[in-house]
Write a structure and sequence with these properties.
By secondary structure, this protein is α+β, with helices and mostly antiparallel strands. The chain is built from seven helices and 32 strands.
Length: 480
């Protein structure tokens, strides 16, 4: 029966506890525990159990316990505004039935009060009994076709109703939200007319008038929003991985597979500087305003650089494996770095030691900052878990479990109330940042979408664009 298949025994629990002690660095404790429990004689020792298995299961259990608490008396998920007044469960609270019941009763009392007020105000309908559907309906998902290979990157224009995509088919495209508008195809042809291979990065300047693209033919290109090629920036000797405008939009930095990074004058296309700091690929850059920027690589060192300075300002050390991505928060006070060493580190850029080390149970692939004054950071991992952190305190606010495979993308909406996540399971999930609850889901995996590389909220917060390995772009109408 299913019940017998799901049975727990002490050996299984002891083995996961033993692995947790080992992974957490409690070497003496794990040694003692292994001998006292006899776990090393069990049949589980040779199994390939992923790191962080115990924590992952506890997180999932906590998520489901919270989901149970968040139900109305009719057994339906409660509304977000009702959940805002209820504190989320901690792990210790979740194992105390009386605390769970107390939260449940608090929520239901809040719902009854909301319904009473609605009745007094003459509003129709019973919110508590209203059917809640997480699924984003098909009529709100538009599948845009045209690319002939994987669509790797996407970016919304900050000022106009446009977004750009970059693909392995040697093109970028500018898509308009105007009805029946055809996308503008930006062909990446080298000077001799050959295709420029994959387009690895797209980035709009602050005014939305210009789009920078980086491609595997060693070239940065600058295009107008109407699709005219304005300039080719030549000087790299390897495929490009990233390109970013500074805050003033008068300079760009590009990063290269050969470990170099170049600073360009946006107006003239002249190369101002070349930093050759790494022997491994230089994978990301993040500007701290208009003159200072951070670089990272497959080497575990982050360099702070400044335009006009020949040498880096400082080296930030602490990671023990590849650094995948960098991001400054909106106030430019905190730098977040995500690494294959299963951690996110928070730096202030002036010290060589991190302020905080934030842990996942597997490689961390991407991060994003919330808008607004509170330094909230989202991080996403190969463990399929998203964590929301208070970067100033170094504490975890929410753990979001809903995906089934590695995560590639996290992005906050402009209000900071919602987070969109996407990854290798092909699904797009939208979460409430007030309650940590799942709000909406598009199940692209079941319709063959493949891996989603990026998902981004529009500047107005009413649309999400997602780019996929199945050569398509998804445009989702989002309604809070």
């Amino acid at each position: 029966s299913n019940r017998s298949k799901m049975a727990l025994d002490s050996d299984q629990i002891n083995f996961l506890v033993y692995r947790y002690l080992q992974e957490s660095g409690f070497q003496h404790s794990s040694f003692t525990f292994a001998h006292e429990s006899g776990i090393l004689k069990s049949s589980f020792v040779g199994l390939k159990i992923p790191p962080g298995a115990l924590i992952a299961q506890l997180q999932r259990s906590l998520y489901y316990l919270q989901a149970e608490v968040n139900l109305t008396e009719e057994g339906l998920p409660a509304e977000t505004e009702d959940l805002e007044t209820i504190e989320p469960l901690t792990l210790i609270e979740a194992v105390q039935p009386e605390v769970c019941e107390q939260r449940r009763q608090q929520l239901r009392a809040r719902i009854r009060e909301s319904q009473r007020q609605a009745g007094e105000n003459g509003e129709e309908g019973d919110r508590g009994a209203m059917e809640v559907d997480y699924e984003i309906p098909p009529d709100r998902v538009h599948v845009l076709k045209g690319h002939t290979n994987e669509v790797i990157v996407c970016a919304w224009n900050p000022k106009f109703n446009l977004f750009a995509t970059g693909s392995s088919d040697s093109t970028a495209r500018i898509w308009s939200l105007e009805e029946d508008a055809e996308p503008i195809i930006l062909r990446h042809l080298s000077i001799d007319g050959n295709e420029g291979k994959n387009v690895s990065a797209v980035d709009w300047n602050a005014s939305g008038s210009l789009l920078a693209t980086a491609a595997a033919d060693c070239t940065v290109r600058i295009w107008t929003k109407n699709g005219d090629l304005q300039n080719r920036l030549l000087g790299h000797n390897g495929p490009l991985l990233e390109v970013k405008w500074n805050a003033n939009s008068d300079m760009l930095v590009s990063t290269c597979l050969d470990g170099s990074a170049a600073v360009w004058d946006a107006a003239t296309g002249a190369r101002r500087q070349m930093f050759a700091l790494y022997s491994d690929p230089c994978v990301d850059v993040s500007w701290q305003g208009s003159a200072t920027f951070a670089l990272c690589s497959l080497e575990p060192v982050i360099y702070m650089c400044q335009t006009g300075e020949l040498a880096p300002l400082r080296a930030l050390r602490g990671h023990t494996n590849e650094v995948n991505v960098l991001s400054w928060d909106p106030s430019a006070k905190y730098l977040a770095s995500a690494s294959d060493d299963m951690s996110v580190r928070i730096w202030d850029g002036t010290k060589e030691e991190p302020l905080h080390v934030l842990r996942h149970s597997d490689k961390v692939l991407t991060v994003a900052w919330a808008p607004g004054p509170r330094p909230l950071l989202a991080s996403a991992s190969v463990d399929a878990v998203v964590k929301i952190w208070d970067a100033a305190a170094g504490t975890c606010v929410f753990t979001l479990c809903g995906h089934t495979a590695a995560l590639n993308s996290v992005d906050f909406d402009p209000s900071g109330r919602f987070l969109v996540t996407a990854g290798a399971d092909g699904n797009v999930l939208v979460w409430s940042l007030q309650s940590g609850a799942l709000q909406q889901i598009y199940r692209g995996g079941s319709s063959g979408v493949g891996t989603i590389f990026k998902a981004r909220f529009s500047p107005a917060g009413n649309r999400i664009v997602a780019c996929s390995s199945d050569h398509t772009v998804l445009l989702i109408d989002f309604k809070a």
